[in-house]
Amino acid sequence: MIAGIGIDVAEIDRIKRAVEKTPSFINKVLTKGEQAQLATLKNQRYYEYIAGRFSLKEAYSKALGTGIGRHVSFLDVEIIDNELGQPVVVSHPFDGPAHASVSHTGQLVFTEVILEKGE
Question: Can you give the CATH number for the domain in which 67 is found?
Fold first, then answer.
C-alpha cells in the first residue's frame, strides 16, 4: 500500500552555483556514502548527481509529509546508485520500503519517491 508520493524538480545550475559559492553545501546534503559515489564523477555529471540527490531527498520528505526540516534532514536519507545506475534508498527514517526515480535534462533534474507500508 502506498503511504506517500513525493516529486521534485531542481535546476542543475542553481545547485552548481550553491556548491561553488558554499562548498560545505555538499556536506549538508550528501551522506559519506553519497560523497564517495560523487568522488567518482566529473564535469556535468558531478553536478547532476548533487542536484539529483538534493531533489530526491526533497521528494522523499514530501512523500513523508514533513518537508526537509524538523522531522527529516538531508543526512537522514541515503540514496546510492546500484550497479545499473538505479538510485536505491538504502537508509531512511520511514518504516517501510522507499522507491526512488530520477531523470535529467541538460538543465533540470526530476525526481519521484514512493513510500510503501504494509497492509
Answer: 3.90.470.20
Residues of the chain with pLDDT under 50: none
Active-site residue (options: 21, 92, 104, 117): 104
d(CA 96, CA 55): 20
Predicted model pTM: 0.95
Specify binding-site residues for Mg(2+): 8, 58
What's the pLDDT score for residue 75?
Answer: 97
Is 104 a catalytic site residue?
Answer: yes
- Count: domains in the chain: 1
Q: Show the domain range for 102.
A: 2-116
57 annotated active-site: no
Taking alpha carbons only, the member of 77, 29, 31 closest to residue 54 is 29
CA distance 107 to 72: 27
H-state helical runs in the chain: 12-21, 25-29, 32-38, 43-64
- Give me the catalytic one of 62, 71, 99, 117: 62
Place of cell 517501510: 96
